[in-house]
Amino acid sequence: MQFHARRFDNAAPVSVHIDHGRIDRIEAVDVEPAVAALWPWIAPGLVDLQVNGYGGQEFSSGRIAPDDVERILRRMDAFGVTRAAATVTTHRPEVMEHAVRTIARAAAESRDAAARLAGIHVEGPFLSPEDGPRGAHPRPFVRPPSLDEFHRLQDAARGGIRILTLSPEYDGAPEFIAAVVQTGVLVAIGHTAAQPARIRAAVDAGATMSTHLGNGAHALIPRHGGYLWAQLAEDRLVASLIADGHHLPADVLKTFVRAKTVDRCVLISDLSGMAGLAPGVHEGELCRLEILPNGKFVVAGQTEVLAGASVPLGQCAANVVHMAGASLAEAIHMASTRPSRWIGLAPGGLAAGDAADLVLFHLIEPGPTGGPPRFDVQATVLGGRVVHGAVSR
Ligand SMILES: [Zn+2]
């Protein structure tokens, strides 16, 4: 397979040759700039560490079947996402066990599912019970950390859990975190009301990420002290950010990216299982939610309390360029190579020998009303195979 594109990192027009699932070679092409400007951008496939479901199906469900898992993961092809972490959120223990068992079964039985899965991300149930930090995680199912429960979940997942998001505000959290990290699972801090000393103790114990920093937090916080600054200033923590235009205002997003630095930021979509449905009111398994005409997901009946996200990762990357002043190369780094490296996958690249997991896209500039460019996926290549769109048109 051979096609033309522009590199995301230096805008060079190139001819890309793919053979046996790998990039065979990438050659510079001497072409008029006006011609190259019509070619798609090419970048390593995007890696989304937080996808809760899609098209009306949550991963965190007592009814999910392996086919559903595969279908959700395949829906990511259209977004240029070549790897996604299936995210299971707070629920009754038997529901969470069913969910992770089903995801593991899908990966064991389907090559298509396994190729797209970046592991299981368990967000909860060991989160803050406080309103605000708890976010949309149901209060009755939030509970203090239990190593027994973690091991039961990991057994049900056949070892497939790669990320555990928890709040370190509980007594004994550092010991719990150290024990989980010891098993090779990455621990992230999220949905927390922990004081700075507990944040630091969690990092000392091995936590390495802040999950969707700035969300799952109190609406009002003291101007000094607290969990937000403690995580922003902690260089041992990478921050995942929801740059969908609704979860973080532009000023906050830009400040976070500048404070953490590009290399400590990872973009996530946090896609809701209701993402992909039409605007209107939908009955979720745990609450009624409404999709507003502008794509914002809220708890039904009002317009401010967010109930999830619906903007795919590529658009979040385009938003970071627009809202935070990042370069395209930096935005793609935050949405692809950086999350790959953090989770321990081989980071994608555009060199001979790199896996041909690629996204080809156009950035469609907005009209006179302004706003971010639109991330328009032309094609997604996974293991050297075109799984969405067409590489030439
Ligand atoms: Zn969350």
Keywords:
11 helices, globular, 393 residues, binds zinc ion, alpha/beta, 2 domains, 8-stranded parallel beta sheet, single chain, 7-stranded mixed beta sheet, TIM Barrel
Describe this structure in words.
With 393 residues, the protein is of the alpha/beta class. It has 2 domains: 2-42 and 356-389, no CATH class; 44-343, Metal-dependent hydrolases (TIM Barrel, Alpha-Beta Barrel). It has 11 helices and 21 strands. The chain has helices at residues 33-36, 66-75, 93-109, 111-116, 147-156, 173-182, 196-204, 227-232, 250-260, 313-324, 328-343, and strands at residues 2-7, 13-19, 22-28, 41-44, 46-51, 53-54, 57-58, 81-89, 117-123, 161-166, 186-189, 209-210, 238-241, 265-267, 280-283, 288-291, 297-299, 306-308, 358-364, 374-382, 385-389. The strands form 4 sheets. It has an 8-stranded parallel β-sheet. Strands 3-2-1-4-19-20-21 form a 7-stranded mixed β-sheet. A hairpin with a 2-residue loop joins strand 20 (374-382) and strand 21 (385-389). Helix 6 (173-182) packs parallel to helix 7 (196-204). The protein is globular, with a radius of gyration of 20 Å. The site of zinc ion has 6 residues, from loops. Residues 123, 135, 190-191, 212, 216 line the site of zinc ion.
List the helices and strands and how they pair.
Blueprint: E1 2-7, E2 13-19, E3 22-28, H1 33-36, E4 41-44, E5 46-51, E6 53-54, E7 57-58, H2 66-75, E8 81-89, H3 93-109, H4 111-116, E9 117-123, H5 147-156, E10 161-166, H6 173-182, E11 186-189, H7 196-204, E12 209-210, H8 227-232, E13 238-241, H9 250-260, E14 265-267, E15 280-283, E16 288-291, E17 297-299, E18 306-308, H10 313-324, H11 328-343, E19 358-364, E20 374-382, E21 385-389
Parallel strand pairs: 1-4, 5-8, 8-9, 9-10, 10-11, 11-12, 12-13, 13-14
Antiparallel strand pairs: 1-2, 2-3, 4-19, 6-7, 15-16, 16-17, 17-18, 19-20, 20-21
Helix pairs in contact: 2-3, 3-5, 6-7, 10-11
Bound molecules: zinc ion (ZN).
